[in-house]
Write a structure and sequence with these properties.
Layout lengths: L3 H6 L16 H14 L3 H15 L3 H17 L3 H15 L6 H17 L3 H17 L5 H17 L3 H18 L2 H17 L3 H18 L2 H17 L3 H18 L2 H17 L3 H14 L7 H17 L3 H18 L2 H17 L3 H15 L5
Helix pairs in contact: 2-3, 2-4, 3-4, 4-5, 4-6, 5-6, 6-7, 6-8, 7-8, 8-9, 8-10, 9-10, 10-11, 10-12, 11-12, 12-13, 12-14, 13-14, 14-15, 14-16, 15-16, 16-17, 16-18, 17-18, 18-19
C-alpha cells in the first residue's frame, strides 16, 4: 500500500510552459503574466488572466496558440479535464495551420497526452507521447526539452502498466536530454521518475539518492508543489528503509509545504501518506482521521482517483484493525469502485488483499484465500 504514494506522484510535475509569439506586444505581455502564474502553480489566477486576454490575442496565430496551450495546462491542473481537452482541441486546429511547424504540433500532442494520462487513458496517452516524440524529431528545429518532457510522462504510462524496463528507459532518456540542455527543473522532473522506477523495483537506496537530488533542485528553483511531491515520496522511501522517524518528518514537511502553496490535492496526498505510516505503526485511529480528511479533500477530482481510493482503503484497514469489519467492508466497496474507474490492476489488487484480510479477521479462511488468489492472479505475469 505504501508504494501507492509513488503512483500518485506520477501525475503531478509541472514542466515549463513553452512560449510562442512575439514579445513586447500588449497581448504577449499579458500572456507572460498568466504563464508566470502557471509557473508558480497559481492556476485560478492564470485562468482568470487568460480569459481576460483572449480577445487581444485571438487574431494573432502565434499568440492564440500560446494562449490555448497555457489555458489547457491550467485547466488540467485545476482538475477540469473536459475543459482542458476542449481547449487543446482548439490548440490542435490552430497548430495545424501553415503558420506552425512540426515541433509546434508535437507540443499540442504532448499536452493532449498529459490530459489523457490524468484521465487514466494510458494507451491513448502513450500513443500521443510517442507521436509527439516522432513529430518533434521530424521538425527542422526539434525542441530537446519537449522531448525530455514527453519521455518523462511516457515513463509514467509504463509505470502505470508495471513495465519497469520501458519506464526506466524513458526516465533515463528524459534525464539525459535535460542534462544536455542544462535545464535544472526538467532535470529534477526526470530524476523524480528515475527515483519512482527504482522504488518500484525495490531499489530503495537508489530511489532515495535520486529523490534527494531532485529535492535540492526543486528547492533551488522555489518549486513548492514539486517539493511537496518529492518530500511525500521521500517519506515513503524512508519508511520502506525502516526509518519511521525520518518518514514522519518528511511527510509533515510535505503537508506544511502543501499548505503554504495552497494546494488541497497535494495536501491530501501528504496527509494520506502520513495516515499510511500511522496505520502501519499501530495507530489506526490517527490513520483514519487523516485518511478521512484526504478523502473529503479529493471529492470531485477525477484526476486523483488513485489517491482517493488509497484514502478509502486506509479508512477501511483502520476500521478492520479495530474489529469493525462491517464498516471496513463498506469502505473497501468504495475503494474498489474508485480503483475500477481508475483502471489500475495494481490498485484493485490492493483492495482485494484488504478484503482477504477482513475475511481472515472474521474467521472466513476460504473467503480470504479467494481474495488473495484473485489479487495474485491479477498481478501475475505468466498465465499459461
Amino acid at each position: 500500500m505504501l508504494l501507492a504514494m509513488a503512483a500518485a506522484a506520477l501525475v503531478y510535475e509541472l514542466p515549463p510552459v513553452t512560449t510562442f509569439g512575439h514579445p513586447g506586444t500588449a497581448g504577449a505581455d499579458l500572456l507572460a503574466r498568466a504563464e508566470a502564474f502557471i509557473a508558480s502553480s497559481r492556476f485560478d489566477a492564470a485562468v482568470e488572466e487568460l480569459e481576460d486576454v483572449w480577445d487581444d490575442v485571438k487574431a494573432e496565430p502565434a499568440l492564440a496558440l500560446r494562449h490555448q496551450l497555457a489555458l489547457g495546462w491550467a485547466e488540467m491542473y485545476r482538475g477540469n479535464l473536459d475543459e482542458a481537452e476542449t481547449v487543446l482541441d482548439c490548440a490542435q486546429r490552430i497548430a495545424w495551420s501553415p503558420h506552425f511547424d512540426a515541433a509546434d504540433r508535437a507540443e499540442v500532442m504532448y499536452r493532449q497526452g498529459c490530459v489523457a494520462f490524468k484521465r487514466a487513458n494510458v494507451a491513448e496517452a502513450t500513443e500521443l507521447f510517442t507521436r509527439a516524440l516522432d513529430t518533434n524529431g521530424w521538425a527542422k528545429q526539434p525542441k530537446p526539452l519537449l522531448a525530455a518532457h514527453a519521455h518523462e510522462w511516457r515513463s509514467r504510462c509504463h509505470q502505470f502498466l508495471r513495465d519497469w524496463d520501458a519506464a526506466g528507459r524513458d526516465a533515463d532518456r528524459a534525464l539525459q536530454l535535460a542534462l544536455d540542455a542544462g535545464d535544472e527543473p526538467s532535470e529534477a522532473h526526470a530524476l523524480f521518475q528515475v527515483s519512482l522506477v527504482a522504488e518500484r523495483r525495490r531499489d530503495w537506496l537508489s530511489a532515495r539518492i535520486h529523490a534527494e537530488r531532485a529535492l535540492q533542485l526543486y528547492e533551488r528553483h522555489g518549486d513548492a508543489l514539486a517539493m511537496t511531491r518529492i518530500l511525500n515520496n521521500l517519506g515513503g522511501i524512508h519508511f520502506l528503509l525502516g526509518d519511521t522517524e525520518a518518514a514522519e518528518a518528511h511527510l509533515l514537511r510535505a503537508t506544511e509545504t502543501a499548505l503554504r502553496a495552497g494546494s488541497d490535492a497535494d495536501l491530501a496526498q501528504a496527509v494520506n501518506s502520513l495516515a499510511q505510516v500511522y496505520l502501519r505503526t499501530g495507530r489506526p485511529a490517527d490513520a483514519r482521521a487523516r485518511a478521512r480528511r484526504a478523502v473529503e479533500m479529493l471529492a470531485g477530482r477525477p484526476d486523483f482517483r488513485d489517491e482517493l481510493g488509497n484514502g478509502q482503503l486506509i479508512v477501511a484497514e483502520s476500521l478492520a484493525a479495530e474489529g469493525d469489519t462491517t464498516a471496513a467492508g463498506m469502505w473497501i466497496d468504495a475503494a474498489e469502485q474508485t480503483f475500477a474507474a481508475l483502471g489500475s490492476t495494481s490498485h484493485l489488487a490492493n483492495a482485494w488483499i484488504a478484503r482477504g484480510d477482513v475475511a481472515r479477521a472474521s474467521g472466513d479462511a476460504d473467503g480470504a484465500a479467494h481474495w488473495y488468489r484473485r489479487a495474485a492472479a491479477t498481478l501475475a505475469d505468466v498465465h499459461f
